[in-house]
Design brief:
The complex is a heterodimer of chains A (118) and B (110). Chain A has no helices and eleven strands. With 118 residues, chain A is mainly β. Chain A has strands at residues 2-6, 9-11, 17-24, 33-38, 44-50, 57-59, 67-72, 77-82, 91-98, 105-108, 112-116. In chain A, the strands form two sheets. In chain A, strands 2, 4, 5, 6, 9, 10 and 11 form a seven-stranded mixed beta sheet that branches. Chain B has no helices and nine strands. Classes of the chains: A mainly beta (118), B mainly beta (110).
Chain lengths: 118, 110
């Protein structure tokens, strides 16, 4: 199992960024996927998840209305479109696979850093 | 949802045992047997160590064990080793496919 994030970088407040997560080594379309972030020196926060088919999505209150999660089961890829970015969105963003039979996250990517600053 | 409460730090000498607590409420830890624990070394991604309160994924040493009583879950590391020095986070299901992470605990091997 391998998850590789990309798309992070420096963006100004109010700007947009699209994160990608390329999955391999498992049947991507069988699993829920999630984005989890970690602000510098802080703890973990689950930002969003998406069901295996893409039908169901969830967003934390802190990003609802600004972020959109999506997936492409043909390309084995997960995405996070981030709009109206704020300085408090600065964090390492991890994509993770949701365990097949439990509420847990059994594989994580290496993370991609998003910095929102002037 | 408020973050689950963990001690900021715990420490022990090599070979000793340490236990990290994770205190939630009757709506999360106390309601479901879906508590997991993650280990994070500096600059690295978290790694799943325990799920469903007590289960260990393949490859995780059996010196890591989990338990739960009421609204508090615990992770015990027996026979502490240098490579166990890391940050540890608990996580619990809280219903409606939502969950909450703990505040994190730094484990120091003396």
């Amino acid at each position: 199992v391998q998850l590789v994030e990309s798309g992070g970088g420096l963006v100004k407040p109010g700007g947009s960024l699209r994160l990608s997560c390329a999955a391999s080594g498992f049947t991507f379309s069988d699993y829920y996927m999630t984005w989890i972030r970690q602000a510098p020196g802080k703890g973990l926060e689950r930002v969003s998840y998406i069901s295996s088919s893409g039908t169901y999505t969830y967003y934390s209150d802190s990003v609802k209305g600004r972020f959109t999660i999506s997936r492409d089961n043909v390309k084995n890829s997960l995405y996070l479109q981030m709009n109206s970015l704020r300085p408090e969105d600065t964090a390492v963003y991890y994509c993770a696979r949701v365990h097949a039979s439990s509420y847990s996250f059994d594989y994580w990517g290496q993370g991609t850093l998003v910095t929102v600053s002037t | 949802q408020s973050a689950l409460t963990q001690p900021r730090s715990v420490s022990g000498s090599p070979g000793q045992s340490v236990t990290i607590s994770c205190t939630g409420t009757s709506s999360d830890v106390g309601a479901y047997n879906y508590v997991s624990w993650f280990q994070q070394h500096p600059g690295k991604a978290p790694k799943l160590m325990i799920y469903d309160v007590t289960k260990r994924p393949s490859g995780v040493p059996d010196r890591f064990s989990g338990s739960k009583s009421g609204n508090t879950a615990s992770l015990t590391i027996s026979g502490l080793q240098d490579e166990d020095e890391a940050d540890y986070y608990c996580c619990s299901y809280a219903g409606s496919y939502t969950g909450v992470f703990g505040t994190g605990t730094k484990v120091t091997v003396l």
